[in-house]
């Protein structure tokens, strides 16, 4: 005899394939009726024409059959707008990138001092990963000196909110969010201090709809080792760090400090990129830093006027100069970074002969 409690408990085990939470917790379980061994389940979909109805039906059946439901009928309806809004707000406060089953590799781009080209490197590596066919997001965490909106040609645009979530802006498939999108003007002095900053970053990581299938999130960090880096380290302990340095020893020393700090908070150091290589700046600093840190030098990018021009024009260099040798270097760095992708799936277990 099927009881109400058994069925309720079994249905609690049904996870929505998209939101990945139990259907009863997110308001998708409209109700159920038991008639002997037959159970009829009403599911409320978040969106009309949800593509997962077959999968949900299969999951409901798989949950109810073991407890003795011989016949299971699943009916689909839709959530009311209020229910949907409530669900969206109930979903907040969890950072998707922290979940153990997150499929996103988070890479922070850091440097010891300002102006070494972090934002330029972030922008072009994002563009390169995108060109390689990956789904990429960019989070501009440089609250005081944001330049990502300009470099992606998104200056002056405003993200829209949907069901309590902020939709990132999209450039050529790269999802971009920056504090710059929310300020009245680029000149607006951002005088935020630690706690507000912490809150803003938290919101970028929880309330921005990055989508379920993001492969890489690149974070453009402000220079040095301040509040932002600390906040991010607590939010995203799995974040990897890319260190950008110019070839001179001074830049190198400070980059070293930033890297040491990343080491202290136990973030993985992925590699060094030497930027503005050659000519007056010389080169070799990147390799030295990489050796000191015991991590690979992933690439050396030359100092080239066209790179700055592309940034100023809002056209990532990698996209505007696809055949340039420097683009090849960016692509190479992107490929090497892609290799750091942690294994996502558990190894397939061999089923022995029975
Ligand atoms: N390889 C390069 N060749 C020529 N110019 C470059 C190169 N890399 C960056 N630049 C230019 O140098 C300036 C600083 O670069 P960028 O803004 O990327 O540095 P940053 O480290 O992000 O600076 P900040 O610390 O202010 O955030 C920009 O004008 C940029 O266009
Ligand atoms: Mg910058």
Task: Outline the structure in words.
- With 354 residues, the protein is α/β, with parallel strands linked by helices.
- It has 2 domains: 4-91, GMP Synthetase, Chain A, domain 3 (2-Layer Sandwich); 96-338, Rossmann fold (3-Layer(aba) Sandwich).
- Helix content is 35%, strand content 21%.
- The chain contains 12 helices and 13 strands.
- It has helices spanning 4-12, 53-64, 81-91, 118-131, 148-151, 194-206, 227-235, 249-264, 285-293, 305-313, 317-320, 325-338, and strands spanning 29-35, 38-45, 71-78, 105-110, 136-140, 161-162, 165-166, 169-171, 174-178, 216-220, 240-245, 268-277, 297-302.
- Helix 8 (249-264) links the parallel strand 11 (240-245) and strand 12.
- The two termini are 33 Å apart.
- The structure holds adenosine-5'-triphosphate and magnesium ion.
- Residues 118-119, 142, 145, 147, 220 line the site of magnesium ion.
- Magnesium ion is lined by residues 118-119, 142, 145, 147, 220.
């Amino acid at each position: 005899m099927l009881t109400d409690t058994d069925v309720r408990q079994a249905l609690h085990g049904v996870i929505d394939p998209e939101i990945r939470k139990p259907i009863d917790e997110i308001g998708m379980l409209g109700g159920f009726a038991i008639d002997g061994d037959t159970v009829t389940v009403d599911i409320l979909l978040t969106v009309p024409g949800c593509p997962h109805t077959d999968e949900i039906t299969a999951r409901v059946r798989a949950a109810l059959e073991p407890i003795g439901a011989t016949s299971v009928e699943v009916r689909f309806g839709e959530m009311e707008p209020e229910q949907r809004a409530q669900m969206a707000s109930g979903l907040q406060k969890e950072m998707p990138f922290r979940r153990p089953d997150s499929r996103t590799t988070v890479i922070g781009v850091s440097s010891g001092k300002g102006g070494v080209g972090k934002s330029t490197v972030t922008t072009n590596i994002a563009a390169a990963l995108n060109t390689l066919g990956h789904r990429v997001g960019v989070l501009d965490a440089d609250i005081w000196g944001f330049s990502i909106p300009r470099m992606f040609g998104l200056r002056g645009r405003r993200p829209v909110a949907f069901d309590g979530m902020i939709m990132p802006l999209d450039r050529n498939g790269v999802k971009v969010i920056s504090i710059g999108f929310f300020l009245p003007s680029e000149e607006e002095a951002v005088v935020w201090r630690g706690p507000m900053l912490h809150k803003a970053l938290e919101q970028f990581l929880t309330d921005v709809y990055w989508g379920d299938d993001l492969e890489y999130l690149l974070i453009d960090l402000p220079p040095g080792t301040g509040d932002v880096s600390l906040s991010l380290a607590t939010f995203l302990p799995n974040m990897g760090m890319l260190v950008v340095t110019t070839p001179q020893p001074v830049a190198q020393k400070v980059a070293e400090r930033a890297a040491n700090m990343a080491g202290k908070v136990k973030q993985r150091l992925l590699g060094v990129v030497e930027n503005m290589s050659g000519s007056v700046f010389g080169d070799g600093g990147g390799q030295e830093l990489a050796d000191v840190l015991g991590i690979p030098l992933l690439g050396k990018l030359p100092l080239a006027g066209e790179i700055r021009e592309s940034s100023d024009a809002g056209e990532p260099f990698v996209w505007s100069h696809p055949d340039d040798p420097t683009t090849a270097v960016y692509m190479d760095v992107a490929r090497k970074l892609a290799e750091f992708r942690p294994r996502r799936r558990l190894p397939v277990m061999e089923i022995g002969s029975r």
